[in-house]
Specification:
single chain; mainly alpha
Length: 78
C-alpha cells in the first residue's frame, strides 16, 4: 500500500509541475514523507502552508486527497 501511495503522489507531483492547474509541491512533500526523507511534523507544517485561494477548487482537491489518504489512515511507516 505504501509503495502505491508513493507512486501516486510522485506522479501527481510531477504532473503538478507540468500542468498549471494542479499544484505539485504538496504532493512531492508527501511523497518525501512516505519515502522517509522528512518527518511527519515537517510534512504537516509544509502541506498546511499550501497557499491557494480560500474555497478554491484546487485547495479543496488537495485537502480532500490528503484527508482521505493520510490523516484518516495514520500510516505507520516505522
Amino acid at each position: 500500500m505504501r509503495v502505491l501511495l508513493v507512486i501516486l503522489f510522485l506522479l501527481l507531483g510531477i504532473a503538478g509541475l507540468i500542468l498549471p492547474f494542479l499544484p505539485g509541491f504538496p504532493f512531492l512533500i508527501v511523497a518525501l514523507y512516505l519515502l522517509g526523507f522528512i518527518g511527519r511534523r515537517k510534512m504537516l507544517r509544509l502541506t498546511k502552508g499550501f497557499k491557494g485561494r480560500k474555497g478554491s477548487r484546487r485547495r479543496k482537491i488537495v485537502g480532500w486527497i490528503f484527508m482521505r489518504l493520510l490523516y484518516r489512515r495514520r500510516l505507520n511507516l516505522k
